[in-house]
Design goal:
- By secondary structure, the protein is mostly helical.
- 80% of the residues lie in helices and 0% in strands.
- The protein is built from eight helices and no strands.
- Helix 3 runs parallel beside helix 6.
- The longest helix is centred in the middle third of the chain and has 30 residues.
Length: 215
């Protein structure tokens, strides 16, 4: 159950990261403008878009939990009328909400204004959904982990996964029978699996977190 204290913690996180979210939106919109929304994604626009979203995800997933530990503010959070599990859930909701506030408008703009080939839209949607799932897995790892080693490991793995997915997996997943980009069953299945894996990872991370001590 979501309590008023949890809502206050989520609002606190969104307030702290408001300019980061706005900056990501501005950078993402600039990237889409450089790409002209026609499916012909420019190299500069592509790099800017992916970088902006990845940086947002890393900061939201890693900085909050680590800063709470380092500043010893976690004990203060638990002095509020929240349990360990509720505090962790508020952290996840705050980070996920912040990511979606930047991610969803960028995706919506492209879905609304895109007038290029549908296969190129499939490629873009595939990339955006992967970035969302990748963020969810990184967030689960940092919630479950309790030190910098876990966070650094998660950052390295998640950042390595992004170019590998773009260069190796995504071209294969969006290749139609004629060799052109297209919406394919394997794309839907892969993206659904990634989102399910991220959701399960977050659920397990919250379950284990709620059962451990505060130290």
């Amino acid at each position: 159950m979501i309590t008023r204290a949890m809502v206050a913690l989520v609002r606190k996180d969104l307030y702290l990261y408001r300019w980061l979210i706005v900056g990501t939106l501005v950078g993402g919109m600039l990237a889409l403008w450089l790409s002209d929304l026609d499916g012909n994604v420019s190299l500069a626009g592509h790099i800017l878009l992916v970088t902006a979203i990845v940086v947002l995800g890393v900061i939201l997933a890693v900085h909050g939990p680590l800063s709470e530990r380092q500043a010893q503010s976690y004990s203060f959070v638990l002095s509020l009328p929240v349990s360990i599990g509720q505090a962790a859930a508020a952290r996840v909701l705050g980070s996920l909400s912040g990511f979606l506030l930047a991610w969803a408008p960028l995706l919506l703009v492209v879905l609304t204004l895109h007038d290029g080939p549908s296969g190129e839209l499939a490629w873009f949607v595939g990339l955006m959904v992967f970035l969302l799932a990748n963020f969810g897995l990184l967030l689960a790892l940092t919630v479950l982990g309790r030190n910098e080693l876990w966070s650094v490991t998660g950052i390295v793995v998640s950042n390595t996964a992004v170019p590998l997915f773009q260069l190796l997996a995504l071209p294969a997943l969006t290749r139609g029978a004629d060799g052109e980009l297209a919406w394919t069953p394997q794309l839907f299945l892969t993206l659904s699996g990634l989102l399910l894996a991220a959701a399960l990872a977050l659920g397990l991370a919250l379950l284990f977190t709620s059962r451990r001590d505060v130290s």
